[in-house]
């Protein structure tokens, strides 16, 4: 008998548009010989499944079930592709934990911690050979922040929402007079903001996942952007960024990066597939951790698909592995 899988998408933030695109790709590549797949849209006060004819069926939040005609549909598991809140920050994971429904992504605690860039950096910076940029974590109620930042950190700076994703609200600041506008943009997305010193280096993004009893680090993708940094447009608009998979690294760099990435995955107690962004500093080759995405994009231009194909695996087999892992 085929397992019933809920493919959850939507969300409460600006990342919902990316989540919808990701869900289309996942839906197209799931093995329908193994699974009955029901796409479930999750928005504030509106959770529903939509039939092929466009009819909406509400989700019963008491047990996360659907009633289709005379049939009540309960789910064996959840494929979570909901970026941002509540799918990536632990809220949805906690809900499924209470209902004893397994899911493909990290648990509630890991999801909540890794959504906060500042807290994540504090946890991983003890890993050997891993470095983090000097930074300040700001809260909305903080005062005189511009003077504090310019006193403690060196320009240029990256200013970004501490709990955001997809580079929404993120800015690069080169001059002191640009800082306040960058802070305002980031605070429009979140009540906490992370300000980091710029690291001059080659930028990479790398996927890692656990399936069939082992953790696999995928080939890294090197990001060569025509823009100043890997922002929302660079991530999701075709032609803006050159993405080289596998990225151009020496054997020593590949070995060191893979060891560090596996340790990050372990130390943060990750599950399923995550994507980690990092720099290799130009002058020294040091590994600088940027951030982790616990529900990485699966759009047509996303990086995980490129990396899976680079190891000779089909996207369908990759998704099947993630689903089967949650039943072990």
From TrEMBL:
Keywords: ATP-binding, Cell shape, Cell wall biogenesis/degradation, Cytoplasm, Ligase, Nucleotide-binding, Peptidoglycan synthesis. Cell wall formation. Pathway: Cell wall biogenesis; peptidoglycan biosynthesis. It comes from Belliella filtrata. InterPro entries: ATP-grasp, ATP_grasp_subdomain_1, D-Ala_lig_Van_CS, D_ala_D_ala, Dala_Dala_lig_C, Dala_Dala_lig_N, PreATP-grasp_dom_sf. It catalyses: 2 D-alanine + ATP = D-alanyl-D-alanine + ADP + phosphate + H(+). Its cofactor is Mg(2+); Mn(2+). The gene is ddl. It is found in: Cytoplasm. GO terms for molecular function: D-alanine-D-alanine ligase activity. It is an enzyme of class 6 (ligase). Its EC number is 6.3.2.4. Belongs to the D-alanine--D-alanine ligase family. The keyword Cell wall biogenesis/degradation applies. Residues 117-324 form the ATP-grasp domain. The keyword Ligase applies. This is D-alanine--D-alanine ligase. HAMAP family: Dala_Dala_lig.
